[in-house]
Design a protein that fits this description.
The chain has about 280 residues and is an alpha/beta fold. The chain is built from 10 helices and 10 strands. Strand 9, helix 9 and strand 10 form a beta-alpha-beta unit. The radius of gyration is 20 Å and the shape is globular. The mean pLDDT is about 90. The chain binds zinc ion.
Length: about 280
C-alpha cells in the first residue's frame, strides 16, 4: 500500500518540482502527530506507520490525519464561508466528523477524539458497527438508511422502494431510498425525516458543548439536499439548549464534497511543514 502512495507522490513531483510536503487523509483511527493508522474499519490496516514510511521514502515532511479531520479543516478555512468554530459531519456509509475549534483541528491528546458518529443519541436504538447501541452512526448513516429501507420494503412490497429494488434486480440500498425520496415517495421521505431527526439531535448536543458558528454536512447522503437538511435543522432547533439565549448554528451542505479530504490534507501538510521547519518530533517506532 505504501508503494501506491509513493507512486502517486513520484507522479506529482514529475509535474511539479516545488512539491514541499505530503499530506494524507486516512479513514480510521489515526494517531497524531505520529501518523500511525492504529485501526481502520473496512480494511486490514493495523499499526501502519504511514507518516514515517512516507518521510523516509520521499525525504519530504509528511502529515497523516483522519480523513474527516482534514476535510473539516478544508471546509472551515477554504469553504464558502470561513469559520473558526465548526463541525463537519460526513454522512456516508458511516458518520465521520472533523471538529475545528479556534481555527484548528481538535483531535484529543492522541488524535483519537472527534468521533461524533459514536456519540449516543438513543441507547434503545439499533446496534452500531462498533458494538454499542444507538450511536449516531447506527441511526443517521447510509447503512441506517439501507436498514430502514429494507424494513420499509418488506412491510410494503408494492411500494416505490420495493419496486425500484426489484427493477434493479438487487436488494434495497440507501441509494434506492434516496432515488425514491427524490421522486416524491412519502415513505422514503419519512425515512430521511427520521435520519435527519437523529442527526439534528446529535448536532444540538454538539452545539450545547461547543457553541458552533456552523455545522457543515458532507458525505454522499447530502445529495438528498433538503430531504435530509430540513428535518436535521428542525431537530437541532427542537433539542437546542437555551435557544432564546444562544444562537442555533446554520446547518449547510459542504463546499468541496468528495475533494475536501485531499484539499485539507494538502493544507495541513503545508502548515505543518512551515511550523516545524526541521524541528519535527520523532515518530514513534
Ligand atoms: Zn458506534
Amino acid at each position: 500500500m505504501t508503494a501506491l502512495l509513493l507512486e502517486m507522490v513520484d507522479e506529482l513531483r514529475k509535474d511539479d518540482d516545488a512539491v514541499a510536503a505530503v499530506g494524507v487523509g486516512a479513514a480510521g483511527t489515526v494517531e497524531w502527530p505520529t501518523g500511525r493508522i492504529r485501526w481502520a474499519p473496512n480494511n486490514e490496516y493495523r499499526d501502519w506507520n504511514v507518516r514515517a514510511e512516507l518521510e523516509r521514502a520521499t525525504g519530504l515532511p509528511a502529515v497523516v490525519d483522519n480523513d474527516a479531520n482534514v476535510a473539516g479543516l478544508a471546509e472551515a478555512r477554504l469553504g464558502d464561508v470561513r469559520y473558526d468554530h465548526m463541525i463537519l459531519v460526513t454522512v456516508g456509509t458511516g458518520v465521520g466528523s472533523g471538529i475545528v475549534l479556534d481555527g484548528r483541528i481538535y483531535r484529543g491528546p492522541h488524535g483519537l477524539g472527534a468521533e461524533i458518529g459514536h456519540m449516543n443519541v438513543n441507547p434503545d436504538g439499533p446496534q452500531c458497527g462498533c458494538g454499542n447501541f444507538g450511536c449516531l452512526e447506527a441511526l443517521a448513516s447510509g447503512t441506517a438508511l439501507t436498514r430502514m429501507g429494507r424494513s420499509a420494503a418488506a412491510g410494503d412490497p408494492a411500494g416505490m422502494i420495493a419496486t425500484l429494488a426489484a427493477e434493479s434486480g438487487a436488494e434495497v440500498t440507501g441509494q434506492i431510498v434516496t432515488t425514491a425520496a427524490m421522486a416524491g415517495d412519502r415513505t422514503a421521505a419519512s425515512l430521511f425525516a427520521r435520519l435527519g431527526r437523529s442527526l439534528g439531535i446529535g448536532i444540538a448536543s454538539m452545539n450545547a458543548i461547543f457553541e458552533l458558528e456552523a455545522v457543515v454536512i458532507g458525505g454522499g447522503l447530502v445529495d438528498a439536499g433538503e430531504l435530509l437538511l430540513a428535518p436535521t435543522r428542525r431537530a437541532a432547533r427542537e433539542f437546542a439548549y437555551a435557544p432564546s439565549a444562544r444562537p442555533i448554528p446554520p446547518i449547510v451542505p459542504a463546499t468541496f464534497g468528495g475533494d475536501a479530504g485531499k484539499i485539507g490534507a494538502a493544507l495541513l501538510a503545508l502548515e505543518d511543514a512551515g511550523e516545524h521547519q526541521g524541528h519535527r518530533p520523532e515518530p514513534t517506532p
